[in-house]
Structures are given as structure tokens and as C-alpha cells.
């Protein structure tokens, strides 16, 4: 099972929280909790999608992120063998 974190910063909070969220993501990468991430922008909103090392790692990052006025969710990604 692969775990991910979906995060959206609404436009009205984007300028205030974007740098803080990037720092939290960077710390997660440095600890090895986050394996990779990508970002997108749409009409002022900023979104990040991250792949986590494990469910525990995803929950650790989630705990740091949920304190802020952003939308954040841990997801499970199921793979299928071919």
C-alpha cells in the first residue's frame, strides 16, 4: 500500500501559508517521511500532492499540517499487479 497526502491552500490564505507549508514539506523530505511531491496552482489556490514512506509517516506530516487553515487529507493508493 502506498500512502499520500493531499493538501489545498485556499486563495485567501495562499500568500500567508505557502512558505510555511513548503518548510514543513522540506522537513518531511529531510526526515525521509515524504518521498516526493508536486504542486499545482488554480485560480489563486495552491495544491500539493505528496507520496509518503508509510502510513505513520503520512500521519506525522498530517499532524503538522492540520494546525493551519488549509485542507489536508491522507489517502491510500492501491496498486494492482499485472
List keywords for this structure.
single chain, 82 residues, 2 helices, 4 strands, 4-stranded antiparallel β-sheet, 39% helix, 39% strand, alpha+beta
Structure write-up:
This protein is of the alpha+beta class and 82 residues long. The protein is built from 2 helices and 4 strands. It has helices at residues 11-31, 55-65, and strands spanning 2-9, 34-42, 45-52, 71-77. It has a 4-stranded antiparallel sheet with strand order 2-3-1-4, with helices on one face. Strand 2 (34-42) and strand 3 (45-52) form a beta hairpin. The longest helix has 21 residues, at 11-31. The radius of gyration is 13 Å and the shape is globular.
Please state the CA-atom Rg, rounded to the nearest Å. 13 Å
3D shape: globular
Structural class: alpha+beta
**Mean residue pLDDT:** 91
| Topology pattern, helix = H, strand = E | EHEEHE
Please tally the helical runs, counting DSSP H or I stretches of 4 or more residues.
Answer: 2
Low-confidence runs of at least 5 consecutive residues? none
Strand content: 35-45%
Total strands: the figure is 4
Q: State the major sheet.
A: 4 strands, antiparallel
Spatially, the strands of the biggest sheet line up as: 2-3-1-4
- Indicate the percent of residues in helices: 25-40%
Amino acid at each position: 500500500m502506498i500512502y499520500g497526502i493531499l493538501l489545498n491552500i485556499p486563495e485567501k490564505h495562499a500568500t500567508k501559508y505557502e512558505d510555511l507549508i513548503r518548510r514543513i514539506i522540506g522537513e518531511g523530505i529531510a526526515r525521509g517521511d515524504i518521498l516526493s511531491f508536486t504542486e499545482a496552482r488554480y485560480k489563486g489556490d495552491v495544491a500539493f500532492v505528496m507520496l509518503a514512506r508509510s502510513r505513520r509517516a503520512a500521519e506525522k506530516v498530517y499532524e503538522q499540517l492540520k494546525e493551519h487553515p488549509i485542507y489536508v487529507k491522507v489517502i491510500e493508493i492501491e496498486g494492482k499487479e499485472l
